[in-house]
Structures are given as C-alpha cells and as structure tokens.
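Handout, section 3.2

Students often ask what a structure token actually looks like in practice. Rather than define it abstractly, here is a full record for Universal stress protein UspA. The first block is the sequence as you would receive it.
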Amino acid sequence: MSMRHHILIPTDFSENAWSAALYALKLYAEKPCTFYFLHAWTFSSGSRTYVSPSYIDILQDKSKAHLAEVKELAISESTNSEHKFEILFRLDPLLDAIKNVIEEHHIDQIIMGTKGATGAKEFLLGSNTVSVIDKVRLCPLLLVPSNFAYVTPNQIGFPTDFNRGYGDELQPIKNLADIHNSRIKVLHINSKEHLTETQNANMDFLKTNLKDYQHSFNWVPDKGKKEHAIESFIEENNINILTMINYEHGIIEDFIKEPVIKRLGYHSDIPFFVVPHTN
C-alpha cells in the first residue's frame, strides 16, 4: 500500500497554472494522490469608486465556477482512479491562503507555474512565485515552466557546495527520485583545489545517505557565474528536474534578491524543485 500524496496546485486560471497541473498529473500518474486546486481571491478595484457587494458576489461566483471547471478538466485528464481532486476557494492573499491550506490539509508538496497570468516580461518568475519561494518554508515547491512538455524525470540535478550539514531536507529529494526511480546527479562547482574538512564530512554523509539511490557526484570548475555552470550541467546531462535546498542566505536567495529576476532565466527550461531548509 503506497502512501497517498497531498499536492497543492495554486491556480489563477492561466495557461501557465494549467501547465503545472498537467505536469503534476503526469508526474504522479502511478501514485495515489489528492490534488487540491487553490484559488486565492482578493478584490482590487483599482480606483476608489464604490463597488456594490452584489458585483463582488458575481465576481466571486465566476471564480468559483472557473475552479469547478479546472477540477472537471483534471478529472478528465487523470489516468488513475486513485487520484482525488478537491477545490479550495479562499478570500485571503495568496501567501496566507497557501500557508493555511498546507497546515489544514497536511500538504506535502506545492506544484505551480512559473509565470503569472499578467505575463510581465521582466519576470521569468512571477512576483507571486518569488514570494512563495521566499516565504513558504513549510513544504517543497515544484515550479513548472509554462508550456513545458512532460518528460519522465530520469535525471535529477542537485547542485550543492557541501558547506552545510544535510538533514531532513534530503528526504523530499529522495521522495522525488522514488516516483520514477530517477538518478540523482549531485553537482559541485569547485572554486578551490581542495575541499575543507567540513565539506569532506558533509560529502561523505551525502554519499552514505544516497547509497540506496542511483546517484553520481559531478565536479565542475568554477569559471564565473554559478548559474552558467548549472545551465551547462543541465544541458550536458539531460537533467529533467533541477532541485536545490533553500537555505537562509544561500544561492536561491541570491537569485531572488536580484532587482529583476533575470538570473532565474536558466530555470525556465526545466522544472525546479525547491526544498526548504529545516533547522
């Protein structure tokens, strides 16, 4: 009896959000899952004119109807009778809604699209996505690029610098590898000739921890920007999902803190799995 996965899919009814839903259905095609479609609704009138409550009711009903349609579409796309679908309509800002739903429904993963409906060209990741990566540290997050055609993730890339000890955050990466018996390709971008004692100890721990998984350790010299090294690694190794641990003050935070999130461009090609660091 395999465990049931509880997966949260926030939706703004964009093509992009639907891409992420399709990816989730295919990724978990063989697994018992409950998928929760969440729409967080906040009214913004833009101007200060009076808006009648009945008009707001109409808008809310429209959103609820869209949510029901998404569920029906998902049911028709799913190939597994062990897939269940729930819809959640919340009158909260997105981040609050996500946090509450994670706790109420014991969500173990969020899957969402990387571009919002606004399609602001300057953000490869919509501002919503960025705040979710930044603020939601309760469970892993899988970001799916828009119009990404599903590929079985045979190769999972895992860049790490061995500078910090590993704890529970390795488990979601292993769970991801378990779904399709994927190989975990650890990538280390080495800026110095030798690892420190701490790095060696952490690397040994990681090797031991991954011993039951197909895995390899890959060394790439540091020749400039880390994201270029990661990008080449993805291409040369046919990586299907890139996974990273989101430490306080780590590489992901550096990417997110850029004034315009151009540097996340290299993730726009394949899904990106962000695991929060657990203290």
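Discussion prompt for tutorial groups: Strands lie at 5-10, 33-40, 83-90, 109-113, 141-144, 155-159, 183-190, 215-221, 241-246, 272-276. How would you have guessed this from the sequence alone?
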